[in-house]
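Protocol check, entry for the methods section draft. Step 1: assemble the input record (protein sequence plus ligand SMILES). Step 2: submit for complex structure prediction. Step 3: store the structure tokens unaltered in the notebook. Ligand used here: calcium ion. Step 1 record:
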Amino acid sequence: MGDNAYTSGTDAEYQTGYFNMYANIFRKMPQWSTLGNHDANNGSTNPLANFPYFDMFTFPTAGECGGVGSGTEHYYSFDYGNIHFICLDSQASDTSTIETNGSDGPMAVWLRQDLAGITATWIIAFWHHPPYSKGSHNSDTEPQMVRMRTNFNPILENGGVDLVFLGHSHNYERSVLLDGFYGRSDQVPGITAAMRKNAGNGSTSGFTTTANGKIRNAANGFIATDTTAGTVIPPDGAYIKPLTGPRDRFGAVYNTAGMSGLADSGMIDHPAMYVSYNNVGTVNLDVNGNSLTCTFVQSGGATPDNFTITKQGAADTDGDGMSDAYEIAHGLSRYTNDAASGADTDGLSNFLEFAFGLNPTVNDGGFLEADVSGGIVTKRGRPSPWYQTSTSGTDFRVVYIRRKDAAEAGLVYIPQFSGDLVNWADSTVTPTVIAEDGEVEAVSVEYPLFPTPQDGGFFRLGVRSTH
Ligand SMILES: [Ca+2]
Ligand SMILES: [Ca+2]
Ligand SMILES: [Ca+2]
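Step 3, stored output:
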């Protein structure tokens, strides 16, 4: 996270404090660094200066490792597995943005292009100056820290960043799942409940604290409280973010880890943080498919913090049960709950249109039709009675349309049967898929045997969202 060798980042300092120090590790592991103030001749902000740092490292400038080429080693991106890493320069590059300064500097121009093309599951950004810190540096007042927060956090959050690693403050500071806070830590109203996408610890296993820290959780009323050695913090469960659909503004974790070489003091009570420590250690990043876990590891093996982010399901910003992708495609609002309304004249709510794969702006709510022998849905629509003949006679069944991404979209379809229209029983059989059209499938369920068949069998279908 920058400042790899003190004080001015000279070749000699790097040799002694970095290359000699970690020779065994460097034989096995590539290094991806970001420019710190000590790498820049102890504080230079000259964007044209060729610090020794740039001769010691060779960073991609033309997208050689994935992403959009930046044309400079000051900032760059690369892909590793299903992760897209973005390195920004908070020390010596122009941090202007359209929103704050009227026009984008080259770094903002490049970042927007790079973010727009990402298909990787994970986006992890890193740079030197933390946007949220009350460690050995104060993000309320230090200009570079303020600028990264006000100018670049919005771009990254709009682009769907999941995790940001930072240095500069010689402390460990780890935020909750946060979105949209660009002010001072002491401003009113400060970080709102809506900005805390998840105020819990994001841990799936819990952890045991050490001394020299501050923690903010339900047990202490979310007021930063001194940690004690040996306190067991129970898990609150992983931070959940959508796996598919638009990825913007579902929250990110900001993790300052400037304490690998030295731990300084500091208030470490920034309201963005779940837990902070003035202790030496390192952060281990472990990504396995749709799950990402960070663990704070100390030299003796203690692990006084961890958190997990899990990607699952379809993006549904307003939680109305209809995916963002569907709402955008059909002109509905992804920010307001419009599940119960219906813009067309087929009598189906927007939510049922979504569930049956229909169009909420077109009268298309007739009964479904399918070419069963060909296995093709020929017309999407409402559930319908259906029968098929077999060697044992005639099977009376019902058919209905189910989205193929139902599990991802959080949809549950519940066929129910009744003999008297009063008492309804959920069907317990697994529906049979009889046709599909790529996006949806028609499934059939046989009528259950009734004690008094002459009463007839009535059918209805419930559709529920787990969002
Ligand atoms: Ca929605
Ligand atoms: Ca909506
Ligand atoms: Ca419709």
